[in-house]
Specification:
Layout lengths: L2 H20 L4 H4 L3 H11 L11 H7 L4 H14 L4 H7 L5 H14 L1 H11 L5 H11 L7 H8 L5 H14 L4 H5 L8 H15 L5 H10 L2 H11 L8 H6 L7 H14 L5 H10 L3 H15 L7 H26 L8 H5 L3 H4 L1 H6 L7 H11 L2 H14 L3 H14 L4 H23 L9 H13 L4
Helix pairs in contact: 1-3, 3-4, 4-5, 5-7, 6-7, 7-8, 7-9, 8-9, 9-11, 10-11, 11-13, 14-15, 15-17, 17-19, 18-19, 18-20, 25-26, 25-27, 26-27, 26-28, 27-28
Length: about 475
């Protein structure tokens, strides 16, 4: 072992023994000045550290007086990873709070389960700055005690710690935090409230959070339920539809009903139509009637309002009864762990399943386009090829046509080649018409991307 490594190891051991032996109540204040000791030893040795601890020089620089060397050491030590944590644990008991702060920065940069014990210890540091940074660092960690410590810090007296704990919960990604953060109405500090709200939105945006969020909405009431529903706004996941419909009940406060009607615009489906139509037509509160009308227009595309929704429902109740089974299926399929029921898909006509094709092109929950494509692939390819071809032939939008060519190619199946032939003929006829229109001064659309996509598709599906 090189001389510096030996000296550093010896210094670390001596410092650790001395630090722990002084006063367990406040070891940082009572311990040796480990940083200065290591730096002094480093000055006695001129050869750079090698061997089993190639980071020894960086440990020395971390405790030195040169700010540039300190920053370089931080970067180097983070790159070395968990192997440096035992040495950092020794420095974490130094008297110098600035050195302990740099230790926190390295440990947070390493993160993971390995760094958790050190950051958990430093989250109890008497220096508030170190507690704050250690708290934020726990958001990059994992393992026993991390979430529980953040829960403790979330009710600390210091608003800075409550804020940092809320932020760290977002980094941790633990959906158990939704229930804790939904009490943000009780928080007196606006900065903490903002951090809690941001973290709730971040956590609620995970696929794994949808059903726990739905359960929490159903179990809470009043202000807490309103906060949870607000977090659901942008999800666009119909698994939330039933609990949101239940939140429209006359037994719920006005604010809860209003925000639930808002959320159904993105998370609702045909299962919400009847209740929303009744609200839009009959509710005694102007704001609720207006919001229910807005949501129904979003869900159905029908430009109704007020009493008009009562008539609309009378005319569409049978359609809703037909679509509810389809929408329940779509909602269940938003869970990527649920097997795709091929036999169940076959029971629906392709017109009912067509929204899956819309989803593939984007829209809905972030995980829904990929899942919708998996559902299409699991179904009978022939009827999807026909639907895609019909849509392609009916539109002149170059982006939509290009997308459909690619999807037909990716879907494959026994009808793929016939569809590609039809697409080629359609492109040729469109180009011929467009060239004639050019004589009248009209711009000719560029179909080169469509032809390229078609050429690639033919290469993937050559003649037998």
């Amino acid at each position: 072992m090189p001389r510096l490594s030996l000296l550093l190891c010896g210094a670390s051991c001596l410092a650790a023994v001395a630090a722990w032996g002084e006063d367990d109540g406040n070891p940082q204040a009572q311990g040796l000045d480990i940083g200065q000791t290591i730096h002094a030893i480093h000055d006695l040795v001129t050869t750079p550290a090698k061997g089993d601890k190639p980071w020894s020089e960086d440990i020395a620089n971390l405790s030195g007086d040169d700010p540039e060397e300190q920053q370089r050491a931080i970067g180097h030590l983070i790159m070395y990873g968990p192997a440096v944590l035992p040495d950092l644990s020794v420095l974490g008991r130094d008297r110098d709070p600035l050195l302990r702060l740099r230790v926190v920065e390295v440990a947070a940069g390493i993160g993971g389960a390995a760094a958790a014990p050190l950051l958990l210890a430093l989250s109890h540091d008497p220096d508030l700055r170190i507690q704050e940074n250690a708290t934020l660092g726990l958001g990059r960690c994992a393992g026993p005690g991390v979430f529980e410590r953040l829960v403790e810090l979330h009710v600390a007296l210091e608003s800075e710690l409550r804020r940092d704990a809320a932020i760290a919960m977002g980094g941790l990604g633990d959906i158990r935090a939704l229930a804790i953060l939904s009490t943000l109405s009780l928080e007196p500090d606006d900065l903490v409230k903002n951090a809690e709200s941001d973290t709730m939105l971040r956590l609620a945006g995970q696929e794994s959070a949808v059903m726990p969020l739905a359960a929490l909405i159903g179990q809470t009431s009043d202000v807490q339920r309103t906060i949870l529903i607000q977090a659901s706004m942008a999800l666009a996941d119909p698994r939330l539809c039933p609990v949101l419909v239940a939140s429209l009940s006359d037994q719920q406060p006005l604010t809860v009903r209003f925000i639930a009607a808002q959320s159904l615009a993105s998370n609702g489906d045909s299962r919400a139509w009847q209740v929303l139509c009744a609200m839009a037509a009959d509710d005694p509160h102007d704001s609720l009637r207006a919001q229910a009308s807005t949501t129904m227009r979003s869900l159905t595309g029908f430009p109704g309002s007020g009493e008009g929704w009562r008539v609309w429902w009378q005319n569409n109740a049978a359609l809703a009864a037909h679509l509810i089974a389809r929408d329940e299926l779509f909602a269940s399929l938003h869970d990527s762990s649920v097997p795709i029921p091929r036999a169940r898909l076959a029971q629906f006509p392709i017109a009912d399943l067509a929204p899956l094709l819309d989803a593939v092109s984007g829209g809905g929950a972030p995980w829904w386009p990929a899942r919708a494509w998996q559902v299409i692939l699991a179904d009978q390819p022939g009827r999807w090829t026909r639907l895609m071809l019909d849509r392609l032939l009916a539109t002149g939008d170059s982006t939509a046509r290009l997308t459909l060519i690619i999807l037909i190619d990716q879907l494959g199946g026994p009808d793929c080649r016939a569809a590609l032939t039809a697409i080629g003929s359609d492109i040729d006829s469109r180009c011929a018409r467009e060239e004639k229109s050019a004589d009248d001064g009209h711009a000719v659309p560029d179909r080169s991307a469509e032809r390229t996509a078609l050429h690639v598709a033919w290469q993937r599906h050559p003649a037998p």
